[in-house]
Write a structure and sequence with these properties.
alpha/beta, Rossmann fold, eleven-stranded mixed beta sheet
Length: 318
């Protein structure tokens, strides 16, 4: 990919071609991944616009945050969208979540000696992985209260440094980013850190969202914007991997409706008392979840996917 498209997040306005700035292009509408100014408005949530790139399909908040401001937001927990205040509730939610998804993650960790979980939250994934013999586990969590909780839960090292600034004393066989990818504000720094932190032959395990161009504001009730600052379009992953020298070795795209109406998902509680009550009612009402799933699929199906992705860096010799 040409260097003209290789844009640093911290300097989008400076990185725009002179012809673009001369035309008065709004830097807030420029794609933070490929630098294209051909983007369009998708929808808004919490008074924040979400745009999509016509070149790489990336969905991104506009204006896109600087790295430092995003790190401060996540670490402080000052935004209502970041559920870190009730850590015991978050931990219970993680137990339900990994009850559904741990087998795939564990499969990719087989034989690993060193593992790093980026954005480890309350630490339940690291706690589960303690059962794997000989595995050194470490986590990264920016919020101090969550990091302290994770240390007690997982019994391993938890680092409170942004991953893009992380300098490991060792390299890892597996780095997991479970529902974290959409929070990290600099693609360039993130992929540089991944390369620097991985052992030769190591892998990156992601769980993240992929979306079709016709995704709707009501494809899900709560988007988490502006905590989530970007989402992959259906074409974005291949372009992203190519740009930063990775190969996609596994990709499982699960339609959102197949996950949304699982009973364990409805047992996960959030901040809204009204939504929590609706979940209880749905669980107690016979045939409610299958009926709601059918209605959702008919209205919004095929637009939103929860994807399990494994990446490996391409060696310089290839």
């Amino acid at each position: 990919m040409s260097s003209a498209n290789h844009i640093r997040i911290s300097g989008i306005a400076r990185s725009l071609p002179k012809s673009a700035t001369a035309k008065g292009i709004d830097a807030a509408k420029v794609c933070p991944l490929c630098g294209s100014h051909e983007t369009r408005f998708a929808f808004a949530e919490n008074h924040v616009a979400l745009r999509t790139c016509c070149h790489c399909d990336l969905f991104f908040v506009s204006p896109y945050p600087a790295s430092e401001s995003q790190h401060v937001r996540v670490a402080s927990g000052s935004q209502a969208e970041i559920e870190i205040l009730d850590l015991q509730r978050r931990y219970q939610g993680e137990k339900l979540y990994y009850g559904r998804h741990f087998p795939l993650i564990a499969e990719e960790c087989t034989g690993a000696k060193f593992l790093l979980d980026v954005g480890c939250g309350a630490g339940h994934l690291l706690e589960r992985l303690a059962s794997q013999p000989g595995l050194y586990r470490a986590g990264i969590e920016l919020n101090p209260q969550a990091a302290q909780f994770a240390r007690r839960t997982a019994g391993c090292e938890i680092i409170e440094t942004p991953f893009e600034k992380f300098q490991a004393a060792r390299r890892f066989d597996v780095i997991t980013l479970i529902n974290v990818f959409s929070h990290i504000p600099s693609f360039e720094r993130m992929f540089y850190a991944l390369r620097e932190s991985l052992q030769p032959g190591g892998k990156v395990v992601l769980r993240t969202t992929e979306m079709a161009p016709n995704v709707h504001r009501w494809s899900q009730l709560h988007w988490g914007i502006p905590d989530d600052i970007h989402f992959l379009g259906l074409r974005t992953l291949d372009l992203l991997a190519q740009k930063y020298g990775f190969t996609v070795t596994r990709r499982i795209c699960t339609p959102y409706d197949d996950e949304l109406f699982l009973p364990s998902r409805w047992r996960q509680t959030g901040r809204s008392r009204l939504v929590n009550l609706a979940k209880i009612a749905g669980l107690r009402t016979p045939f409610a979840l299958p009926a709601l799933k059918k209605l959702y699929t008919r209205t919004f199906g095929g637009r939103l996917f929860l994807s399990f992705i494994v990446l490996r860096p391409i060696s310089n010799g290839n």
